[in-house]
Amino acid sequence: MYSALGFDLDNTLFDQSQHLRSFYRQAGIWISKRSGVAAAVAEQSFVRTWERRTMASPFVFDEALERLGLLRPDWVRELVAQYRAHRCPLTLYDGVRGLLERLRRRYPLFLITDGYGELQRYKVERLGLRPLFDAVVFTADYGLGWEKPSVYPFIRAALLLGVRAEQCLFVGDDPERDIDGARRARMAAARVLTGPYRNYPCQPPYTVLQEVAELETELGGARAATA
User: Fold this and answer.
1) Distance CA 93, CA 84 (A)
2) How far is CA 227 from CA 191, 206, 220, in A?
Protein backbone atom coordinates (compact mmCIF):
# COMPACT_ATOMS: atom_id res chain seq x y z
CA MET A 1 0.00 0.00 0.00
CA TYR A 2 2.81 2.42 0.88
CA SER A 3 6.08 3.05 -0.94
CA ALA A 4 7.85 4.52 2.14
CA LEU A 5 7.32 5.10 5.85
CA GLY A 6 8.32 8.21 7.77
CA PHE A 7 8.73 8.97 11.45
CA ASP A 8 9.02 11.91 13.81
CA LEU A 9 11.73 11.59 16.47
CA ASP A 10 10.90 13.22 19.83
CA ASN A 11 8.06 11.49 21.71
CA THR A 12 7.45 9.18 18.76
CA LEU A 13 10.55 6.97 18.82
CA PHE A 14 11.83 7.96 22.26
CA ASP A 15 10.66 9.84 25.34
CA GLN A 16 11.96 13.40 25.02
CA SER A 17 11.53 13.97 28.75
CA GLN A 18 14.73 11.95 29.28
CA HIS A 19 16.73 14.84 27.86
CA LEU A 20 14.59 17.59 29.35
CA ARG A 21 14.58 16.27 32.92
CA SER A 22 18.32 15.66 32.78
CA PHE A 23 18.87 19.23 31.67
CA TYR A 24 16.55 20.71 34.29
CA ARG A 25 18.61 19.02 37.01
CA GLN A 26 21.71 20.66 35.57
CA ALA A 27 19.93 24.01 35.22
CA GLY A 28 18.77 23.86 38.83
CA ILE A 29 22.36 23.48 40.02
CA TRP A 30 23.50 26.34 37.75
CA ILE A 31 20.80 28.66 39.09
CA SER A 32 21.51 27.67 42.69
CA LYS A 33 25.20 28.57 42.40
CA ARG A 34 24.32 32.05 41.15
CA SER A 35 21.31 32.91 43.28
CA GLY A 36 21.34 30.96 46.53
CA VAL A 37 18.02 29.32 45.65
CA ALA A 38 18.11 25.61 46.45
CA ALA A 39 18.93 23.53 43.39
CA ALA A 40 15.90 21.29 43.96
CA VAL A 41 13.60 24.33 44.14
CA ALA A 42 15.02 25.75 40.90
CA GLU A 43 14.74 22.37 39.19
CA GLN A 44 11.11 22.05 40.24
CA SER A 45 10.35 25.48 38.83
CA PHE A 46 11.60 24.32 35.43
CA VAL A 47 9.75 21.00 35.63
CA ARG A 48 6.43 22.50 36.70
CA THR A 49 6.62 25.20 34.05
CA TRP A 50 7.43 22.61 31.38
CA GLU A 51 4.59 20.35 32.50
CA ARG A 52 2.12 23.22 32.43
CA ARG A 53 3.25 24.75 29.13
CA THR A 54 3.99 21.37 27.42
CA MET A 55 7.39 20.36 26.12
CA ALA A 56 7.10 22.46 22.99
CA SER A 57 6.84 25.79 24.83
CA PRO A 58 9.50 28.27 23.70
CA PHE A 59 9.35 30.22 26.98
CA VAL A 60 9.92 27.64 29.70
CA PHE A 61 13.20 29.23 30.81
CA ASP A 62 11.70 32.73 31.01
CA GLU A 63 8.68 31.60 32.98
CA ALA A 64 10.59 29.31 35.31
CA LEU A 65 13.03 32.09 36.20
CA GLU A 66 10.19 34.56 36.63
CA ARG A 67 8.49 32.22 39.11
CA LEU A 68 11.73 32.24 41.09
CA GLY A 69 12.01 36.04 40.89
CA LEU A 70 15.21 35.63 38.89
CA LEU A 71 14.22 36.57 35.33
CA ARG A 72 17.26 37.96 33.51
CA PRO A 73 17.67 37.98 29.72
CA ASP A 74 21.35 37.03 29.96
CA TRP A 75 20.48 34.01 32.11
CA VAL A 76 17.83 32.94 29.61
CA ARG A 77 20.35 33.15 26.79
CA GLU A 78 22.86 31.14 28.79
CA LEU A 79 20.28 28.46 29.59
CA VAL A 80 19.35 28.17 25.91
CA ALA A 81 23.01 27.66 25.04
CA GLN A 82 23.41 25.08 27.80
CA TYR A 83 20.29 23.25 26.69
CA ARG A 84 21.55 22.98 23.13
CA ALA A 85 24.88 21.63 24.36
CA HIS A 86 23.42 19.23 26.94
CA ARG A 87 24.14 15.56 26.41
CA CYS A 88 22.79 12.61 28.38
CA PRO A 89 21.97 8.91 27.93
CA LEU A 90 18.86 8.23 25.82
CA THR A 91 16.86 5.09 25.12
CA LEU A 92 14.19 4.27 22.56
CA TYR A 93 10.68 3.29 23.50
CA ASP A 94 10.34 -0.46 24.02
CA GLY A 95 10.18 -2.39 20.78
CA VAL A 96 11.15 0.49 18.50
CA ARG A 97 14.52 -0.81 17.32
CA GLY A 98 13.17 -4.21 16.40
CA LEU A 99 10.19 -2.60 14.69
CA LEU A 100 12.38 -0.39 12.51
CA GLU A 101 14.73 -3.24 11.67
CA ARG A 102 11.81 -5.34 10.45
CA LEU A 103 10.06 -2.53 8.60
CA ARG A 104 13.14 -1.48 6.66
CA ARG A 105 13.18 -4.91 5.04
CA ARG A 106 9.82 -4.02 3.49
CA TYR A 107 9.94 -0.24 3.04
CA PRO A 108 12.36 2.65 2.64
CA LEU A 109 12.28 4.59 5.92
CA PHE A 110 12.73 8.31 6.52
CA LEU A 111 12.99 10.49 9.60
CA ILE A 112 12.00 14.16 9.92
CA THR A 113 12.93 16.10 13.03
CA ASP A 114 12.68 19.73 14.10
CA GLY A 115 14.87 21.46 16.64
CA TYR A 116 18.42 22.66 17.03
CA GLY A 117 20.42 20.74 14.42
CA GLU A 118 23.42 19.65 16.49
CA LEU A 119 21.21 18.49 19.35
CA GLN A 120 18.90 16.53 17.05
CA ARG A 121 21.90 14.90 15.39
CA TYR A 122 23.20 13.88 18.80
CA LYS A 123 19.86 12.25 19.61
CA VAL A 124 19.84 10.31 16.34
CA GLU A 125 23.41 9.10 16.85
CA ARG A 126 23.02 8.37 20.57
CA LEU A 127 19.91 6.30 19.87
CA GLY A 128 21.68 4.42 17.07
CA LEU A 129 19.03 5.36 14.54
CA ARG A 130 21.05 6.57 11.59
CA PRO A 131 21.70 3.12 10.04
CA LEU A 132 17.98 2.33 10.21
CA PHE A 133 16.86 5.19 7.95
CA ASP A 134 17.35 5.70 4.24
CA ALA A 135 16.85 9.46 4.59
CA VAL A 136 17.00 11.83 7.56
CA VAL A 137 15.78 15.41 7.28
CA PHE A 138 16.93 17.84 9.98
CA THR A 139 14.70 20.80 9.28
CA ALA A 140 17.14 23.21 10.97
CA ASP A 141 19.57 22.60 8.09
CA TYR A 142 17.24 24.40 5.70
CA GLY A 143 16.45 27.54 7.69
CA LEU A 144 13.30 29.22 8.94
CA GLY A 145 10.08 28.07 7.37
CA TRP A 146 11.24 24.48 6.89
CA GLU A 147 10.13 23.19 10.27
CA LYS A 148 6.97 21.10 10.48
CA PRO A 149 4.08 21.60 9.73
CA SER A 150 5.55 23.09 6.55
CA VAL A 151 5.17 20.70 3.63
CA TYR A 152 8.82 21.23 2.64
CA PRO A 153 10.50 18.61 4.86
CA PHE A 154 7.92 15.99 3.90
CA ILE A 155 8.36 16.68 0.20
CA ARG A 156 12.15 16.72 0.64
CA ALA A 157 12.11 13.31 2.29
CA ALA A 158 9.99 11.85 -0.51
CA LEU A 159 12.33 13.30 -3.13
CA LEU A 160 15.36 11.82 -1.37
CA LEU A 161 13.75 8.40 -1.59
CA GLY A 162 12.46 8.82 -5.12
CA VAL A 163 8.81 8.30 -4.19
CA ARG A 164 5.72 10.47 -4.33
CA ALA A 165 4.52 12.03 -1.10
CA GLU A 166 1.05 10.54 -1.50
CA GLN A 167 2.65 7.10 -1.46
CA CYS A 168 4.03 7.64 2.06
CA LEU A 169 2.75 7.14 5.59
CA PHE A 170 4.12 9.44 8.30
CA VAL A 171 3.99 8.59 12.01
CA GLY A 172 4.19 11.25 14.71
CA ASP A 173 2.81 12.45 18.02
CA ASP A 174 2.18 16.15 17.41
CA PRO A 175 -1.30 16.86 15.96
CA GLU A 176 -0.21 20.06 14.22
CA ARG A 177 3.40 19.52 13.24
CA ASP A 178 3.28 15.83 12.40
CA ILE A 179 -0.30 14.97 11.47
CA ASP A 180 -1.41 18.23 9.81
CA GLY A 181 2.00 18.68 8.20
CA ALA A 182 1.98 15.21 6.66
CA ARG A 183 -1.55 15.57 5.35
CA ARG A 184 -0.79 18.96 3.82
CA ALA A 185 2.00 17.22 1.93
CA ARG A 186 -0.59 14.59 0.86
CA MET A 187 0.91 11.85 2.98
CA ALA A 188 -1.20 9.47 5.03
CA ALA A 189 -0.77 10.00 8.77
CA ALA A 190 -0.67 7.82 11.87
CA ARG A 191 -0.92 9.54 15.25
CA VAL A 192 0.91 7.86 18.11
CA LEU A 193 -0.46 8.69 21.57
CA THR A 194 2.84 9.02 23.40
CA GLY A 195 4.28 12.27 24.72
CA PRO A 196 2.53 15.45 25.84
CA TYR A 197 -0.01 15.73 23.01
CA ARG A 198 -2.01 12.57 23.61
CA ASN A 199 -5.09 14.49 24.74
CA TYR A 200 -4.83 17.32 22.23
CA PRO A 201 -7.57 17.62 19.58
CA CYS A 202 -6.67 16.67 16.04
CA GLN A 203 -8.69 16.86 12.86
CA PRO A 204 -9.22 13.52 11.08
CA PRO A 205 -8.44 11.49 9.11
CA TYR A 206 -5.54 9.68 10.71
CA THR A 207 -4.80 6.25 12.11
CA VAL A 208 -4.51 6.04 15.90
CA LEU A 209 -1.69 4.06 17.52
CA GLN A 210 -1.33 3.83 21.27
CA GLU A 211 2.42 3.39 20.74
CA VAL A 212 4.59 3.25 17.67
CA ALA A 213 5.18 -0.51 18.03
CA GLU A 214 1.54 -1.02 16.99
CA LEU A 215 2.37 0.17 13.48
CA GLU A 216 3.48 -3.28 12.41
CA THR A 217 0.05 -4.70 13.18
CA GLU A 218 -1.64 -1.88 11.31
CA LEU A 219 0.51 -2.44 8.24
CA GLY A 220 -0.16 -6.15 8.45
CA GLY A 221 -3.84 -5.51 7.88
CA ALA A 222 -5.15 -5.84 11.42
CA ARG A 223 -7.88 -3.44 12.41
CA ALA A 224 -6.77 -0.29 14.19
CA ALA A 225 -8.68 2.59 15.72
CA THR A 226 -9.15 5.35 13.18
CA ALA A 227 -10.26 8.88 14.01
Assistant:
1) 22
2) 9, 6, 19
Cβ-contact 200, 192 below 8 angstroms = no
In the predicted model, residues of the chain with pLDDT beneath 50 are 55, 222-226
CA distance 81 to 62: 14
Whole-number Å distance between alpha carbons of 134 and 168 = 14
pLDDT of residue 226: 43
Residue 22 lies in a domain: yes
What is this structure's pTM? 0.92
CATH code where residue 39 lies: 1.10.150
Among residues 84, 67, 83, the alpha carbon closest in space to that of 26 is found at: 83
- The answer to whether residue 36 sits within a structural domain is yes
Instruction: Name the residue range of residue 51's domain.
Output: 17-85
pLDDT of residue 225: 39
Largest CA distance in the chain: 60
Q: What is the Cα–Cα distance from 189 to 215, expressed in whole angstroms? A: 11
Query: Could you tell me if residue 60 is inside a domain?
Result: yes
Q: How far is CA 102 from CA 4, 44, 89, 107, in A?
A: 13, 40, 25, 9
Q: What is the reported pLDDT for 224?
A: 38
pLDDT of residue 51: 85
